[in-house]
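Q: What would this complex look like in 3D?
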Amino acid sequence: MSAHVRELLALAGARALDPSETERVEEHLPECAACAVEAGEWRRLAEGLGRLQAPKPSRALVARTVEAVEAQLAERAERAWNRAALGFLVAFAWTLAVVAWVVLDLVTGVLALRLDRPVGLTAAWYAAYVIAGWLTAGAAAVLLGRRSHEEGRIA
Amino acid sequence: MDPDGDDAARLRRGDTAGLTGLMGRHQDRLFRYLLRLVGDEAVAEDTFQQTWVRVAERIGRYDASRPFAPWLFTVARNLALDHLRRRRPESLDEVDEPAAPAGVEGDPLVHAVARERAGRVATALLALAPLDREVLSLRFEEELALPELAQTLGVPVPTAKARLYRALARLRERMLAAAPAEDWR
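A: Here is my prediction, written as structure tokens for the whole assembly.
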């Protein structure tokens, strides 16, 4: 019995040899009765493994799984929508701030002309107004986010 | 594109029809694989559900140019091994006491019938270590070729081959201890 070929018999039964190894085994088996017997044992073992029975997942399990995945997909869609909505609102708010600055500048300019005297530091007042607005919005977003996180944990 | 690729693309867009298609084609083999790996039906059920949730969550990372099954099995494998490591952190390469089949405890007659049906190979397989059961299941039940098997295990092909050989040798040893090779049919 060749030790080198014998080591290959288990994998031959599993059909996991490369072509050159398979050729070596096939050439050897007709010449060696002991290896031929052992090759038969490995083949029977492989056949037994191929015939194993295993239960399938129950319908209830499949239904539960689909339900869990659907919930996960819904959550993912909601997160994506929230991100898109937040992006739109931020862009909208900045556009509004810039447009409002131009309008305010025009109005105060016209007013100053009519009254024939300066109305005040328009740019400074407007910058303060915008900063206060963004700080308030930021604080509100943090509070809402915390509340949403708490609700998610409770649910 | 293959059906798995189509369904993966649907699932990526959030369409549950994609999930239905993928589950329809892979649920039986996935459950069988998990059952062999964890050796416990309740744990296999939990891991099965977690696997599909994880698949839906990470479908964006799946490379559609490659076969879906090895990727799916890798996701399942990681979850199952996490569970096994929590249960017995020492080693997954050592023999564990096999879990009793669900619903047969306490009734000797039912137990005897179940054992009879399970057959010698299944009994010997249950007595192997999780990683040995896994490699045998992937090769013989899921019929993965060595390159796919290696990809699923996350090891090079020669290592996968060595693991397969070692698992077969251990199974044969257990089978021979129970009955002579002539009786294996």
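A: To summarize the key features: The two ends of chain A are 68 Å apart (CA to CA). Chain A has two domains: 3-50, 82-154.
Q: Very helpful, thank you.
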